Amino acid sequence: MQAVSRRQALLLGGFGMAATAAGSAGLVWTLTSREHPVTGRELTQPPEERSANGQLQVRLEAAPGQMLLAGQQAAALGYNGSIPGPTLRVRPGDILRIGLVNNLAQATNLHVHGLHVSPEGSGDNVFVSVDPGDTFDYEYKLPADHPPGVYWYHPHHHGMVADQIFAGLFGAIIVEDPERIDSSVERVLVISDTTLDGLGNIAAVPEMDRMMGREGDLILVNGQSNPQLTARPGQRERWRIINACAARYLRLRLDGQQLQLLGMDSGRFPTPKTLDELLLTPGNRADLLVTAATGDSALRAFYQDRGTMEGMMRPRRGTRSPADQPDGAALATLRVAGEPIASLTAVPTLRGLGDLRSASVAARRQIILAAGMGMGMGGGMMRFTINGREFDETRTDTTVAAGDVEEWTLTNTSPMDHPFHLHVWPMQIIEENGQGTDTAIWQDVVNVPANGHVKVRIAFKDFSGRSVYHCHILDHEDLGMMGVIEVR
Prior knowledge:
With 488 residues, the chain is mainly beta. It is built from 5 helices and 31 strands.
């Protein structure tokens, strides 16, 4: 039996220790962490909270407890007692108020990932620390022209982000479309991964896995293992997909079905983009239309080579991850049968965020992501830096004039990919490894390939204040690959 680490006991606030002690009383996890039970249960949707009269006020309690994961009770963390937390639905121009109650045994806070809102005060302020037992009242005012799409919320307390998300703290935010897009069914699919020990606790993560970026043995959709979805032929469904994994890249396929991508992150295509495969790096989201065809299809995640640190290959824990297998890992099964239904109206032309390729650029910057061996008190250790420096919240690394458009060249000097995330202001991809784009592509998480570079442009409009940019392999962020930006 593996002992629960002090770090893990602190994370679960003693709950994991209690579950371990009570194992003989019925809390024993009956599956090994590498088994993926096909539950056959219908995909469940997280509870929803919708805005009314221009505002939404919710209470989110972050706390340890017994959570339903892969059809079994597990000692984990959740918002309001569930994984994922409630889906928050708002409209452009709304005010979103969230009372965050911290019933964890460690500090936490909240980041509304991708929302274009103020980073100051009680807004999307990652420098806030909410101590155990305390409550913090967040307030976010969405601009009237805020882009619709799928966003999410999660903790962002430096040094604890990966642990808290891996343990279950995350939930979806939907900014509704001004003009309705017809669909028979709308589903939120929050994809996460975690590892459970033999007693149903979130497993402690080996230091080597933190260096690489942890990937859990269980890949879940809304906390379920391979749930079932049912549809009729011709039915158009809208899937809001979030990659809430701490480090796992999701290369998704749904063979036999028609897939149309409305947009990634806060970006939109004028007309839906037909695709066979979709790659979501950690933190990315997709707004997807699925037109059902008769038969069974599995939503599968396939292995994505994101590189490795030379000489530091992560040891396998027995069998390989299911996503490494030739046929990938089945995340959910879509079963289509019955009488066909009439087709829906055409998708209206979608309004994107514009195009900065011909914009006047006020400044050009180099942002260099690096990972390599350094020296510490205990000898050699991995260092994760941006422009040669590890994160220090008291230091401002980049100062930008409000209203300017800047061009950043994101350069990765390491042998593994790094997904780069900028808070508050979305990025338009201009060039990838020297190849220009032929359309306006907007994302707030941009993958920078190993030993490669990506050029982006950013309009620093609407808000001023201090925020951050970082690698969204969350272990790398916690280990120092993050910088501070101030817009003034």
